Amino acid sequence: MNKHKLHVLYVSLLAMVLLIVSFGPAFSAFAEEVTPPPKKTLVMGTSPDFPPYESVDAKNNGEIIGLDIDIAKYILNELGYELKIASMDFGGLIAAMQSGRVDFIMSGMSATEERKKSVDFSDPYYFARNTIVSKKDSNYNSIESLSGKIIGAQLGSVQEAVAYSVEDAAEVRKLNKIADLIQEINSNRVDAAIVEDAVAVEMTNANGQLVMNFLPAEENDNGYAIAFPKGSPYVAEFNAVIAQMQENGKLDELLLKWFPDANATTAGNNKFIDFSVLEGYVPYIMKGVGVTLLFTLVSAVLGFILGSILSLCKISGIKPLEWFATAYTSIFRGTPLLVQLMLIYYATPQLTGYDIPALLAAGLAFGLNSAAYLSETIRAGIMAVDKGQREAAIALGIPYRKMMISIIFPQALRNILPALVNECVALIKESSLVSVIGVTDLMRRADFVRASTFRSFEVLLLIAAIYYVLVLVLTSLARMLERRLRRSD
Predict the structure, then answer these.
(1) Stretch 407-416: mean pLDDT, rounded?
(2) Sequence ranges of the chain with CATH classification 3.40.190.10
(3) 414-433: b or e for each residue (b if 16 or more CB lie within 10 Å)?
(4) pLDDT tens-place string over residues 260-300
(5) What share of the chain is helix, strand, coil (3-state, %, to 5)?
(6) Were both Cys, which of 230, 307, 336, 381 would link to 415 (CB 3.0–4.6 Å)?
(7) Contact assessment for residue 361 and residue 290, using Cβ atoms and an 8 Å cutoff
């Protein structure tokens, strides 16, 4: 390259640098205008089993819909935030918010004085009235008429406090789901239930043998409001939009959209069993089979791997390893699986800051629990192998690892195969527990359908049949494998 060309190259590079320095800020400003910054995402916690406030539209890809959802979407759109919805049981909502898993709660939650000790509330967006739901031949129409009766209410709800206010009530029965209350009334285990008005309308519409009666409005009713962590900066922003919705009529528009006319009730369904109510819901329920099987597979593999390690620790002859394996087994076999599941799901973000996904938390809890039981099973299988084979392998100079993998473990697995199958069957059946932390397995989807149809018997029979088929398939495959192993011997 000659000096002239080199000079031209230097001048060109210098010009480009000057151009970038001169017009760089302008280009940056233009880019910022063309490409707006990403919106911040806020996570809303809700229990979608309380129509018309929130429910799962099982006939439309399982989307969560309802009055609270529409209000939340409107507020966050006005404030420039993205909305993400976290589904879980009503009783776990405040705990999830306090652990940082959700930013706010909308789930038909009343701003009671007791709750205000733990959370901050927005201004109320709706004032509901309580009703008494009972069978038509009972028709309880006042608080006084419930004296000496068994009263049902949703656990953790304002209606629970109303039920406890009844003098000389025989019992207050607290249940997690509104659909459970209906089942209790239909089974004559509960005389009446205290339910919020909009929900009571849908309950009686879906069950023709039920009737509702309004209770007088509460003087100290604080209404339904949005819950936030203590000291949350979002309270003032949300209150401003709620006030705007009340002024421009948007709130009234959404109320008219979601609340049916209490006077326009239908005849309801009086059939004891009517599987036609599941029409359109079966494909949604069947999607839960994949979640249940995936969860069972992950838990079984994790449990088998950890159980094998623990069993080797128990027979290692090294005291610290033996003590650790024994303590592990004692702890996980001596505490309820549900407690372990809740600890992993709620304590992990609180202690470590990591927002562990619900399915991962469930797989860990069940895998760790299963390992404690399998460690004893695998240890027994190893000890059942003829001691002479171990001594012969040692005499031949076979390394310990190779001896265990190639000689001892294959024989031990043949001995404990039925026990391993039983553990997998137990995992499939116990997987229904994961619904309490929001994993949309078979049981969780069944709960959503129960909440939408206000009927329980039909969907629970379908779920029981699906679990039974899964267990039959698993046991059949295990028998085939066992016969093949016998032939190979």
Answers:
(1) 78
(2) 40-126+224-258, 130-220
(3) bbbbeebbebbbebbebbbb
(4) 654 444 445 555 667 777 888 888 888 888 888 888 888 88
(5) 60, 10, 25
(6) 381
(7) no
